[in-house]
Amino acid sequence: MHHFNKPQGQGCVFSFDIIDCENTEIRITSFNEVADLHYMNIQLGAIYTILGGTVKPTNRLYNKLNSQLEIFLQDASKVSLSDDDLTIPKHQFSFKPLNEIMQMTNNYLVDVIGIVICVDPSSTIRRRDDTKVLRRSIKLMDMSPCTINVTLWVPTTQKEGTQLQEMYHSHHVVALAIKSGRVTKDNGKVISTLASTHLFTDPSIEETKQLKSRLEQNGGDVISSSTETIDVPLQITRKTIVDIEEQTMHSKQPVQHIVKATIRFIKSNSIFYPSCPLEIDGKQCKKRAV
After folding, report:
1. Looking at the predicted structure, is the pLDDT value of residue 265 above 50?
2. Which domains does the chain have, with CATH numbers?
């Protein structure tokens, strides 16, 4: 459910995607009172019969499905729970290899699957509007083999994120499928979850078997396997300092490299400074104290 505030007034919108026996996906959208009516009743993976909806062309600003049409529910529309039908798939994925993420444009919606090789604790960040929000970072490795960081935002931060953290720290090898994750840029390409993103842990599909079989062939060591891959966010190579000097001497664009070297000196008089301890509007000033 998404709430909005426009000059015409406040409102809310609720959307969900369905798939039929021909593997065709389409979005169902409702507003305000109709959205409130259906929001608490729609269950992920359940089968429904929908009557009385209005078919309209897809608005690509909000709907990234391949369908050219979407259905809008009205006051007279009916959404009824139906019996299970084995001809209708529970989910449909269009997985992309992680090594293709680097070439994708920001805000592109993508389906990926990989082995979870790192799960960070949840943390709180402050947005520009001064509100606080929870997030959690995980890392996936696929058959490419490449790795990529995934940022889990509310609501997946706590429920699915906590479940993944418990499974990971209990040394359970977890395959995670992400449907409709958004490609973003945060020091490289990253996949972020949206309200419409769904996470599937160890889904019963062929890709899960392939990933775990590949892992077993590599000795079953998730951590050591991940360090031998190339991270998608950076795509950088190891260089000597001499190589870097020669390559970047006439370059006007920043270039990133990996360097393995011994630290000879640390300049300690400028890595920190005393900050102002006063609070302004409930926040510490943090300006340099002189």
Report:
1. yes
2. 2-81 (2.40.50.140), 98-231 (2.40.50.140)
